[in-house]
Design a protein that fits this description.
The chain is mostly helical. It is built from eleven helices and five strands. Helix 5 packs across helix 7 and helix 6 packs across helix 7. The relative contact order is 0.14.
Length: 250
């Protein structure tokens, strides 16, 4: 069942009719699946007719694979999650305006800056990557206070109570994410290029959302921000962050 879902997901990603599917990858997929079902139904699994392999599948041995590179899953999850989020936003906008936009502007911030970057640096200093355990919130708050007292960087001239109210919810969220999901949650940027991933999959994004044109833009580029036009307020209210692009449709 899982293998069928994977196949369907890959077919959808490759476009109508699966025309962009990789021949060697499909052949490898069928080879592995055939070997896996052989102990259960060896006669059904015989591969001479379809795969044209020599000999009997029962003598072929168990499939072998290299150690998987789990970091390759991150760009795919990022892409799929982003498409789901953008599609919901697109459908909501269509329902509200009764019109269908044909242009999508996807704004990306590939690195944390300012106070969020400072917060992540504090969390990094209080996190044990080997045990995946963090210092208690009290120690993190104390470190934040020392940074504010120092008065440098993003904290210059700031009121500690206001800074605490701004920073602690973000720091608690990132701390929980680092403990329960992945240590890289404390990095200032993702281990892959967001712009590159999105631009390589523009056709998929257009197909999945229902757009004619899509542009991927950096929120740090003033000229790119101007393209948002009347929707710049939406961009300001929902500014992108690493792993969370912001889409505008018009």
């Amino acid at each position: 069942m899982i293998s069928k879902l994977l196949e369907m997901s890959y077919r959808v990603s490759c476009g109508k009719g699966g025309g962009g599917m990789n021949h060697d990858l499909l052949w490898r997929f069928m080879d592995v699946q055939t070997r896996l079902i052989t102990p259960i139904c060896p006669h059904f699994a015989e591969w001479k007719e379809v795969l044209k392999n020599e000999g009997f599948v029962v003598k072929s041995g168990w499939p072998e694979a290299d150690t998987p590179d789990l970091t390759l899953k991150l760009p795919n999850k990022y892409l799929q999650d982003s498409i789901v989020s953008m599609r919901k936003l697109f459908q909501k906008q269509v329902s509200a305006s009764k019109s269908s936009p044909n242009l999508g502007l996807i704004y990306v911030a590939e690195q944390y800056h300012g106070w969020k970057a400072e917060c992540l640096k504090i969390l990094q200093s209080k996190f044990n990557t080997e045990t995946r355990k963090s210092a208690p919130d009290e120690a993190i708050l104390e470190a934040l206070m020392q940074e504010v007292i120092g008065g440098g960087g993003a904290w210059q001239g700031g009121n500690f109570k206001e800074i605490q109210n701004l920073c602690m919810p973000f720091m608690k969220f990132k701390k929980h994410e680092a403990i329960s999901v992945r240590v890289q949650a404390l990095d200032l940027k993702l281990p892959f290029g967001e712009v590159e991933v999105l631009e390589e999959n523009l056709e998929l994004i257009k197909r999945q959302i229902g757009l004619e044109e899509v542009e991927v833009l950096s929120v740090s580029d003033p000229d790119a921000v101007k393209k948002a036009g009347e929707y710049v307020s939406v961009l300001n209210q929902n500014s992108p962050s690493p792993g969370n692009p912001t889409a505008i449709f018009n």
